[in-house]
Design goal:
This protein is mainly beta. The protein folds into two domains: about 90 residues, Thrombin, subunit H, CATH 2.40.10; about 90 residues, Lipocalin. It has two helices and 18 strands. The strands form five sheets. The protein has a four-stranded antiparallel sheet, with no helix packed on it. The protein has a four-stranded antiparallel sheet with strand order 5-6-7-8, with no helix packed on it. Strands 9-10-11-12 form a four-stranded antiparallel sheet, with no helix packed on it. A hairpin with a 2-residue loop joins strand 2 and strand 3. The protein is elongated.
């Protein structure tokens, strides 16, 4: 399921044997758009439906989807119910996609760890992004910079340059990753971890607080001091003994 960033009340859904649909949250009784399956193949067999990911194309009203049967399709609800553009990449299921900042290309990932940049205008393969070793589960393009981040079951987060396809950054994150998202905040590493702590407290005031504290262990505990045995002198057989 994806939400339309330009019309927040519209969401697109799809799945296995579940055609692409666009819903209006203000009127959920009926769909705004329901896609229609493509025509039968050359053997006159029905083409199965398996929508794995979907995105709204900005400023166009169109949608792009990737399927579990290696297909990338572009839909125009204002024109027809069937896709207006269809292309195939590889022979394994596609799992995730993301639009580039100019919305002219789409980056898709599949279950074999392959990333590819496809041109939505000509329906051609532009380049491949190498480095993945496991199934790709999430792909996210930066909204303004030519970078794309991807993660998957190989436990690595990778950042590629979309223009030349080079690997810019790679980090091991220990767990099998399913999703990622670019943060919209700047310099979030420098922000306070605890929002309740006053950021205006000076270091001198902090040092004074530490200096005023009593060091633990410098004084005997009152209970322990009371429990210590007393030394009593007794005379026995002409000798002094301590008890």
């Amino acid at each position: 399921m994806r939400q339309n960033p330009e019309r927040r009340e519209h969401v697109a859904t799809g799945g296995k044997e579940n055609e692409l649909r666009v819903w209006d949250l203000q009127r959920p009784q009926e769909t705004v758009f329901t896609a229609k399956n493509v025509r039968n193949d050359w053997l006159d067999l029905r083409v199965p439906v398996w929508v794995r990911d979907v995105h709204f194309i900005p400023a166009s009203g169109k949608l792009v989807t990737c399927t579990g049967h290696s297909q990338v399709r572009v839909y125009d609800p204002s024109a027809q119910r069937r896709p207006v553009l269809e292309m195939t990449y590889g022979e394994v299921p596609l799992t995730a996609l993301s639009l580039t900042p100019d919305a002219n290309s789409v980056i898709v990932g599949n279950t074999h760890g392959h990333l590819a940049v496809l041109d939505l205008r000509k329906g051609q393969l532009l380049r491949c992004l190498k480095g993945q070793a496991g199934s790709v589960r999430s792909v996210q393009c930066h909204p303004s910079l030519p970078f794309v981040a991807s993660c998957g079951l190989d436990r690595f987060l990778r950042v590629h340059n979309v223009v030349d396809g080079k690997l810019v950054h790679k980090v091991y994150l220990k767990s099998r990753l399913n999703c990622l998202l670019f943060s919209s905040r700047d310099n979030w590493e420098q922000e306070d971890v605890e929002p309740g702590v006053d950021a205006d407290v000076k270091e001198e005031e902090v040092d004074e607080i530490w200096d005023s504290m009593v060091t633990v262990g410098s004084q005997a505990h009152p209970k322990r001091k009371a429990e210590q045995p007393r030394q009593v002198k007794r005379k026995k057989a002409g000798r002094d003994s301590q008890v």
